[in-house]
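Tokens in:
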């Protein structure tokens, strides 16, 4: 049995592009970090980023926020979600998603998942029939995109307003249409481990003029709407400006300066992630004892992480597997813990939701699912070492 060790860090990202570093230095030297601190006729980095991301997405409007969680909260509020409303959401997601819904005062209705880690469309269709359900926050968790044709059929049949959490699907498509362009709003992350890196940050896109006007005011625009250039006509703001509260969730010019060169290179970076993902997926599918779900050919994903399941394995066996992989340098996350660990948490740990539903499929699937980041600092040769360690460890467990 090999004793090869993997020595690279699973959290180490590539450097910010030199153009972003230089522009960030210029912003710092100017002292104009606040997005509205611009000269007459000057747009500023944040406004330019909004223009460029709206264009990239093929959407009319964009708002840059302090985080994806803030973008989701603002999208929900701007769409009209009120305290006591019911919002459907898949049970497998990260804590900022239910957190954004909880922050609106709405009640979260969790929906089960299926074997490929996406939302259970039959459970969704059933729960969408309730007379008091009008909203749906769909999380494309870990970059897995479900059948969006069926999603839209369910939304249209039940008069559901869809908002997309695209924290893990920036640059991804479903059947030729970009993730984040199906619902009334799409929300994206620029946190360090996402597809563009500004440390923290979020982007909200929409074609709805009133929604974006509300979102701009919610974000903390201080009546400076004209300094947003990816926005509707100023007249849209008139009836709203005294009715919409300020939540101070803006992005600043420094982070926008870091992001603009990354956006210009995003599609190339997505292809690089998929080179690594596809290599790992092929290798994992050859390891006895592992289950890696097939992906729908209509899905163009961005493989910045990969998931696989140890179906039929006990909790003790999975913990042993994780420990032995970690001992050889391969860091895997697990959503089967009873308590949240780091960023991983199962829905049963979201006690603030009140009475939690029994979702047997979600529990069963997460109990055996492993999750691994794929930073672009890894080479294909690194991926081979990871595969060797996982294969060795599985063989040890099975024998």
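Residues out:
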């Amino acid at each position: 049995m090999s004793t090869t060790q993997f020595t690279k860090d699973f959290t180490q990202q590539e450097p910010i592009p030199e153009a972003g570093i230089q522009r960030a230095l210029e912003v710092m030297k100017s002292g104009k970090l606040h997005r509205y601190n611009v000269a007459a006729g000057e747009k500023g980095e944040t406004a330019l980023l909004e223009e460029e991301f709206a264009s990239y997405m093929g959407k009319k409007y964009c708002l840059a926020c302090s985080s994806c969680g803030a973008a989701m909260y603002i999208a929900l509020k701007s769409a009209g979600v009120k305290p006591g409303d019911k919002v459907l959401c898949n049970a497998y997601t990260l804590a900022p998603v239910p957190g954004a819904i909880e922050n609106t005062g709405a009640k979260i209705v969790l929906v089960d998942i299926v074997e490929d880690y996406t939302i259970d469309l039959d459970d969704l269709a059933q729960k969408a029939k309730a007379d008091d359900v009008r909203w749906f926050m769909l999380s494309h968790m870990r970059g897995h995109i479900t059948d969006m044709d069926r999603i839209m059929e369910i939304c249209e049949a039940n008069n559901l307003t869809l908002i997309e959490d695209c924290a893990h699907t920036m640059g991804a498509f479903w059947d030729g249409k970009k993730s984040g362009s199906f619902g009334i709003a799409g929300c994206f992350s620029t946190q360090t481990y996402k597809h563009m890196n500004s440390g923290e940050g979020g982007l909200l896109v929409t074609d709805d003029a009133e929604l974006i006007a509300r979102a701009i005011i919610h974000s903390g625009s201080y009546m400076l709407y004209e300094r947003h250039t990816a926005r509707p006509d100023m007249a849209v703001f008139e009836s709203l400006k005294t009715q919409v509260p300020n939540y101070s969730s803006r992005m600043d010019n420094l982070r926008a300066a870091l992001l603009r060169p990354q956006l210009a290179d995003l599609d190339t970076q997505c292809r690089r992630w998929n080179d690594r993902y596809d290599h790992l997926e092929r290798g994992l599918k050859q390891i006895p004892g592992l289950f890696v779900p097939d992906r729908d050919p209509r899905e163009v994903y961005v493989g910045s992480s990969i998931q696989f399941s140890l179906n039929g394995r006990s909790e003790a066996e999975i913990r042993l597997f994780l420990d032995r992989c970690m001992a050889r340098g391969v860091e895997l996350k697990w959503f089967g813990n009873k308590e949240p660990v780091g960023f991983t948490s199962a829905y049963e740990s979201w006690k603030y939701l009140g009475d939690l539903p029994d979702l047997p499929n979600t529990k069963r699937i997460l109990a055996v699912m492993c999750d691994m980041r794929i930073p672009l600092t890894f080479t294909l040769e690194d991926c081979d070492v990871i595969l060797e360690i996982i294969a060795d460890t599985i063989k040890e467990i099975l024998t």
